[in-house]
Amino acid sequence: MRIVLLGAPGSGKGTQSQKLVDKYHIPQISTGNLLRAAVTGGSPLGKQAKGFMEAGQLVPDHIVLGMIEERLSHKDVRKGFILDGFPRNIPQAQALDELLDKVHQPLDATILIDVDLDVLIQRITGRRTCLSCGQVYNIYTSPSRLDDRCDKCGGDLHHRMDDNEETIGNRLRIYEAQTTPLINYYRQQGKLKNIQGVGEIDDIFTKLITVLDRLTNIKPEKQREESTKMSTAKKKTATKKAAPKKKAAATKKKAVATKKKAAVTKKKAAAKKKTATKKKAAVKKKTATKKKAAAKKK
Ligand SMILES: [Zn+2]
After folding, report:
1. Which is it for the CA torsion 215, 219, 222, 228, positive or negative?
2. How many CB atoms sit inside 10 A of residue 46's CB?
3. pLDDT greater than 70 at residue 158
4. Beta strands 136-138 and 127-130: pairing type?
5. Could you state, in order of their start, the residue ranges of all structural domains in the chain?
6. CA 157 to ligand 1 center in whole angstroms
């Protein structure tokens, strides 16, 4: 299962991605992590990337793609991968498609975890974190009962400075401007799957795996067994259901044949009758003529 995950900040993309990793045992490939690892590890691509970063420039796409290609040669991506943080624009998406075609690992789908802007802003601006125990609250959706104190430990609740509405608004606008073209790009390919990212985390995840299981054959072992059992059971039921149908069809055929036979018999009978009538008529005529002739002679 090879997918790209798209989702705004606050969409829950990270959480869902982690759950997918756990369920399907496929790695999440985050280009941010790849870059950091390559730079730290000092690989040839990492050294190139470091040069750009130190010069305060963006790392060019071909270097990032080189890192993705290298990552795709590892054993653990045989069953698939979840690509996160890449692509961010159309040229990157096209380059990624080319790369994946080249290594015969095309994308199965791009999943968009879709959440309304208002909900995203509430989620992020309403977030409060306990300074003592790290418990997370949301003043809109899951507030602390003690108002500005932690229910668990009584600690102070903290509102992150970059969680204010203006900053969030900007981040979301940038995200939207970047992602809308990508959404269209994958929609045109017929690969876009839209998941509503509102509600309980587990319910969203259920929707997600329903979509993915429909897409691919890769399933966790237990589920595969269950689905095999189910399909066998379904087949049996289908056969059972089909049997009476077959019988009914046969009976119908017979009935049609009988009707046909009857029709033929009728026709035959009618023909016989006709012939008989004709013969009779002919005989009558003959007799009458003979009688007439006899009378004339007399
Ligand atoms: Zn606390």
Report:
1. positive
2. 19
3. yes
4. antiparallel
5. 2-26+79-219
6. 8
pLDDT at 291 over 70: no
Residue 158 Cα, ligand 1 centroid: separation in angstroms? 10
The three-class DSSP label of residue 229 is helix
**pTM of the entire predicted model:** 0.64
Helices (H), 103-220: 117-125, 165-188, 201-215
Residues with CB under 5 A from ligand 1 (ion): 130, 132-133, 135, 150, 152-153, 155
Q: What digits encode the pLDDT tens for the residues 192-237?
A: 999 999 988 999 999 999 999 888 654 444 444 444 555 555 445 4
> Each residue of 123-152: pLDDT tens digit?
888 989 999 999 999 998 899 998 889 999
In the chain, the percentage of residues whose pLDDT exceeds 70 is: 72
Residue 12's CB: how many other CB atoms inside 10 A?
21
Q: Which residues are catalytic?
A: 13, 88, 127, 160, 171
Contacts of 260 (CB under 8 A, 6+ apart): none
Count of all residues that appear for the chain in the document: 298
**What is the CATH number that goes with domain 2-26+79-219?**
3.40.50.300
Q: For residues 145 and 290, which has the higher predicted lDDT (pLDDT)?
A: 145
CA 164 to ligand 1 center in whole angstroms: 22
Burial class (CB in 10 A: 0-12, 13-18, 19+), 67: buried
Cα separation, 147 vs 159, in Å, equals: 13
Higher pLDDT, 255 or 240: 255
The gap from C-alpha 71 to its chain's centroid, in whole angstroms, comes to 26
Kindly give the distance from the C-alpha atom of residue 224 to the centroid of ligand 1, in angstroms, as a whole number.
Answer: 42
